[in-house]
Amino acid sequence: MKKLEGKVAVVTGGNSGIGLAAAQQFVLEGAHVFITGRRQSELDTAVKQIGKNVSSVQGDVSHLVDLDRLYAKVKEQKGNIDILFANAGVGEFALLGTITEAQFDKTFGINVKGLLFTVQKALPMFQDSGSIILNASIGGSKGIEATSVYSATKAAIRSFARTWAAELRHRKIRVNAISPGPIDTPAFTGLAQTKEEVEQIKTNLVTKVPLGRMGRPDEVAKAVLFLASDDSSFITGIELFVDGGMTQI
Ligand code: NAD
Fold first, then answer.
1. CATH number of the domain that 156 lies in?
2. Would residue 2 count as lying in a domain?
3. Nearest to 158 by CA among 180, 131, 125
4. Is 71 a known active-site residue?
């Protein structure tokens, strides 16, 4: 039997990178998946790529009305949720001294406020069991230059996993954080002006990874699948690093 047979999953930011890879794993293991993202054209491409048992809902996680629309659609089509992967997130990097109010508000608005309300608004649809996985980052545990704002949002997410694991244990809902290291996704494209600069950023990062390479989205997705499935039935409140050893070594 497949690991998620008959389950209903929601993946925010499921049209790209880690979220898309997780949605693909969930469907392969028998779930019906709702993916969200900001751009309809990218959602349409992702739906084609996933192929079956997938629905898309366009929306911005930092807009609460969009979250209401998402969960109304899930309720109408499936009635409840078993798995939530709160994955949507952004990162803009700036040294202390150059951070703008707009960058701060945008990053906290999506990564912290958006994630909190993604989870809070989903709760009535869980049937006193299930798994919630929050996408944090190794940035939450490390001092990496130019990441003050991004890393602070990810430290907040790691903290949410602890608090919510405590609050939701009575409903048998497990809450865990996943913390990827450098993973080769489209997120890197926006970090520099040219392709060469992007490659330079990746090359520099790889020198800091004990396993000597960037991770692939499917390698994070498999760890998310583990936390989503009953294979992790006695695990709640943890942070699972998928980082080629970068945080520990
Ligand atoms: P990506 O750019 O491929 O995917 C990001 C996804 O988030 C996209 O689907 C995008 O549409 C969605 N998104 C962004 N803002 C949104 C918003 N306001 N509302 C709805 N959706 C929104 O990048 P990725 O690398 O797959 O990133 C996914 C998550 O993984 C992020 O939370 C990121 O911080 C985290 N992460 C990534 C890495 C990495 O190296 N790639 C490392 C650690 C953590």
1. 3.40.50.720
2. no
3. 180
4. no
Point out the catalytic residue in the list 71, 85, 126, 150.
150
Query: Domain limits at 20?
Result: 8-187+217-242
Number of structural domains found in the chain: 1
Ligand 1 atom closest to the CA of 14, numbered from 1: 9
C-alpha angle 162-167-172 in degrees, rounded to nearest 5: 100
180 CA closest ligand 1 atom index: 43
Is residue 110 assigned to a domain?
A: yes
Nearest one of 96, 183, 90 to 146, comparing CA atoms? 96
Q: Is residue 224 part of a domain?
A: yes
Q: Report if pTM > 0.85.
A: yes
pLDDT digits (tens, 9 = 90+) for 144-163: 999 999 999 999 999 999 99
Q: How do residues 181-237 score in pLDDT, each as one tens digit? A: 999 999 988 888 899 999 999 999 999 999 999 999 999 999 999 999 999 999 999
